[in-house]
Amino acid sequence: MTVQKLPIAKAINESLRKAMETDPKVLIMGEDVGKLGGVFRVTDGLQKDFGEGRVIDTPLAESGIVGTAIGLALRGYRPVVEIQFDGFVFPAYDQIVTQLAKMHARALGKIKLPVVVRIPYGGGIGAVEHHSESPEALFAHVPGLKVVSPSNASDAYWMMQQAIQSDDPVIYFEPKRRYWDKSEVDTEAIPGPLHKARTVVAGSDLTLVAYGPMVKVCVEAAAAAAEEGKSIEVVDLRSMSPIDFDAVQASVEKTGRLVVVHEAPVFYGAGAEIAARITERSFYHLEAPVLRVGGYHAPYPPARLEEEYLPGLDRVLDAVDRSLAY
Questions:
Q1: What are the residue boundaries of the Transketolase-like pyrimidine-binding domain, all occurrences included (predicted)?
Q2: Each residue's pLDDT tens digit, 150-195
Q3: Is residue 130 annotated as a catalytic residue, yes or no?
Q4: 250 and 283 in contact (C-beta within 8 Å)?
Q5: 222-255, pLDDT tens digit by residue?
Q6: pLDDT, mean over the chain
Q7: Element (H, E) at 6
């Protein structure tokens, strides 16, 4: 049976398993990924089935983990690195930005670094700071890195397959509060391009663009708006670098309005780049300024306040109303 209903976490697990079965050069590395199966159990059972030589429990040293992965990639392996939580990636930021992202260009294309860096990101799980952040814009800003984030189990499965097969380094952001959201996965489907956006809900009055954890919120917003007679289109970006601006442009030139939604702070977020590009490309089609909805420009708050910090249904609908009022 090729079609199963899986949660995102299990879909990633199945995708890693498939990649390891297919290619003996695929390795998994990270803190507690082996015996424990990861803190979210995404790598559960893989060390038992593939051994400690291919699913490697590392020391608590993110810079060392990524640095080792770079060395392995230079030797022909395809390492998949897990950063346990989003905020733990920064000790490895130097390795990622100055080595992983630059080696291909530095070697004039002669060296490739097929490394996947998995990062559970975002809030909504009641965790403290450094466990609930959304640093995707920092990596999308760096030339030489591909940056992606699935919003559903099917994309989680296939985007991981494509990330591992990529000869370029991929930062793979996993929306941790959606790990247990289920959807159908066809493991024998033919996936679309890794960096192609997808229209989730068709509409004609306004376009909502989101990725990762906020796609579900935007779908809910479209449903709520439909009860008031508003037709909202929802586009799942899927990739933050490169961005499928053509898909966003086509939607906006149909609807005339755009609201970009992400968990990360609005200030210097991915939404700023999308707003600027679409304003340049589609100025004469816009019926209202491009609006952005996201987190506040402040450190991630204690769990008791995170629902106030995270953009939810009401903040998205408020932006929809403001856009439609122009």
A1: 6-181
A2: 999 999 999 999 999 999 999 999 999 999 999 999 999 999 999 9
A3: no
A4: no
A5: 999 999 999 999 999 999 999 999 999 999 999 9
A6: 97
A7: strand 3-7
Among residues 104, 130, 131, 141, the one annotated as catalytic is 131
Separation CA 180–CA 74 (nearest Å): 35
Residue with tokens 């950063």: 83
Tell me: cis bond preceding 175? Omega within 30 of 0 counts: no
| Separation of alpha carbons 317 and 326, rounded Å | 15
- Rounded to whole angstroms, the Cα distance separating 290 from 273 reads 11
Query: pLDDT at residue 66 above 80?
Result: yes
Looking up tokens 């289109």 gives 233
In tens, the pLDDT along 74-83 reads 999 999 999 9
What percentage of the chain has pLDDT greater than the value 90? 98
Starting at the edge strand found earlier in the chain, the sheet holding 198-201 runs 198-201, 232-236, 206-210, 258-265, 291-295
Task: Give yes or no for a contact between 145 and 96, defined as CB atoms under 8 angstroms apart.
Answer: yes
Is residue 49 packed enough to be buried (19+ CB in 10 Å), middle (13-18) or exposed (0-12)? exposed
Read off the pTM.
0.97
